[in-house]
Amino acid sequence: MKIIDKYIFKTYFSKLISVFIILMLIFIIQTFWLFIDEFAGKGLDFFIVSKFLIYYSPKLIPLVLPLAVLLSAIMTYGEFAENYEFAAMKSTGISLKRTMIGLLIFHFFLGIGTYFFSNHIIPYGEVKYFNLRKNLGKLKPALAITEGIFNDIGEMNIKVEEKYGEDNRFLKDILIHEKTNDQKNRIVIKSLTGELKSATIEQQMQLILFDGYRYEEILNKNSNESFFPHARVKFEKYVMNIDLSQFNNINLNEEKYTSTYKMQNVGELITSIDSLEKTFSKNSNVFSENFSNKNNLYTELENISKNNNDSINLVKYNNTLNFTEEVSKLNKQEQVLSAARTSIGNTLRNLDVTKKRFFIFQKLINLHKNSLNEKYTLGFGVFFLFVVGASLGAIIRKGGLGLPMVISVLIFLTYHYIGLFGKNAAEDNTLSPFIGSWISTFIIGFFAFYLLKRASSDKNIFTFEGVNLFMLKINKNFKKKILLLKEIKFDGQKN
Q1: Which of 173, 229, 305, 386 is 20 to 30 A from 157, comparing alpha carbons?
Q2: pLDDT at 191
């Protein structure tokens, strides 16, 4: 490695490490504030909170690393251009591309490293973070209840629309499914408001409900009965005792969840995708066969159509018996038509439900494919963002944190949100998962080569030569018309 390469690498690497650490700290602090409600009031020590943030931090690398590379490259090459170091390099025959060779090799290996990081470290961190968060949620019922979703607490499943007040102990719009002795959800409780408070008995907490109803399904002794009776009780105040012993004996290191798509490496994702696609294909084929075999409806409609070819003329039937038979035939046809309409309505509803079910299944497949492609896109994105940053730095000729920070944030946000748009479109099957995952990388790659070409030629990002020529033409033609009008006016006055 030549002295110039060592100098460029040292300057860039020092900035990359500094920027990466600063950005990482900012994102970690943001993460802490994001989950502050889940930490507060649980008596967690510094070690547990630190462990949570450490497990969560690998998820931040795909955001922090590309931004750090982009900003460091703009700062480094902008500083070189601002201090006329590039001018000195060019005077000795060293071009911009030559100065980037060493760093391009570095980012090539950095891209390979990000692949292994995405394939091993991020899934491992996801497993640890997800399970630790689930276990932390069980430490206190008040904080184990998440707004807007059903939460398992002991022998009941509870959903609240809003938590408020001190320690979030006041609840609003509560819906509870409570299990009976046979472990069936036969009891439903609904109330407008509620409150969580400590009970007089140790290891218990009271859930006090106000203004609601309690519904309980009554088991039939006669199994042949076709109806399912239930009891409804209105209450102004209803007290439930929650056993806290299970919340105080939580193993925070327990890992029950290990198989979501975010927790899988490349090999596991390929296996999952293959299995899901086979299941999807099998279910769709079975549904198609079952649907096509239901041809009784079509037979009935065909018979009706044939019978209706002969119109009923009431005048023609003087005999009462004949008239009765014809009316009877007509009533039968109407019954068949009514049954057909009902059957068609049920079929359409079943199709709608099946369509939604297949849509969700396809979305799950696409999520796995997106996760698989993300293992590769990070490395390419880092490589191309370095080229963009180095080229922009040489063009704008400005070091420091001011302008480079603004430019890098704008470029990164554009790159990031294009990627989000592509992934969301891929999830809904609007785009293929491959295109949706790679679209931002393709765009930033094209932009990188364009900027590198401009910077190597000492040109600005955009040239206005064509616009200038166009405006000169317009100005020239305008002057000609003015002179022509003056000549015509002068000749008129002369005559």
Answers
A1: 229
A2: 92
What sign does the CA torsion over 327, 332, 337, 338 have?
positive
Answer whether 242's CB lies under 8 Å from 204's CB.
yes
Mean pLDDT by runs of 10 across the 495 residues of the chain is: 82 91 91 74 71 87 91 88 81 82 90 90 85 67 67 76 80 84 75 78 72 80 55 86 58 58 84 87 78 55 51 46 55 69 74 80 88 90 91 80 81 89 87 90 91 79 49 65 64 56
Tell me how far apart the alpha carbons of residues 32 and 123 are, in angstroms, rounded to a whole number: 21
Query: Could you tell me how many helices (H) and strands (E) the chain has, helices first?
Result: 15, 6
Tokens of 391: 């080229």
**Token pair recorded at residue 194:** 């509620």
Please, are residues 387 and 451 in contact by the beta-carbon 8 Å criterion? yes
DSSP of 304-370? HHHHTTS---GGG--SHHHHHHHHHHHHHHHHHHHHHHHHHHHHHHHHHHHHHHHHHHHHHHHHHHH
Separation of alpha carbons 369 and 363, rounded Å: 10
- Could you give the count of Cα atoms lying within 13 Å of 333 in the half-sphere of its Cβ? 18
Of 209, 203, 262, nearest in space to 56 by CA: 262
Q: For the chain, what are the domain ranges?
A: 141-248
φ/ψ (deg, to 5) at 151: -125, 130
Taking the C-alpha atoms of residue 157 and residue 230, their distance in angstroms, rounded to an integer, is 20
Cβ-contact 186, 216 below 8 angstroms: yes
DSSP string, 176-210: EEEE-TTS-EEEEEEEEEEEEEE-SSTTEEEEEEE
DSSP secondary-structure letter at 220? P
| Separation of alpha carbons 255 and 100, rounded Å | 46
Q: Which of 123, 139, 127, 129 lies closest to 52, judged by CA?
A: 129
Q: Is 479 helix (H, G, I), strand (E, B) or coil?
A: helix
Angstrom CA distances, 59 to 31, 68, 126, 369, stand at: 11, 15, 8, 18
Q: State the pTM of this model.
A: 0.64
What pLDDT is recorded for position 443?
A: 92
CA distance 307 to 328: 13
In terms of phi and psi (left: phi > 0; alpha: psi -120 to 50; beta: otherwise), the region of 168 is: left
pLDDT of residue 128: 84
Helix (H, G, I), strand (E, B) or coil at 468: helix
Residue 87 three-state SS: helix
- Name 402's Cβ contacts closer than 8 Å, sequence gap at least 6: none
CA distance 461 to 475: 26
Instruction: Tell the burial category of 198 from Cβ atoms under 10 Å away from its Cβ (0-12, 13-18, 19+).
Output: exposed
pLDDT of 228: 57
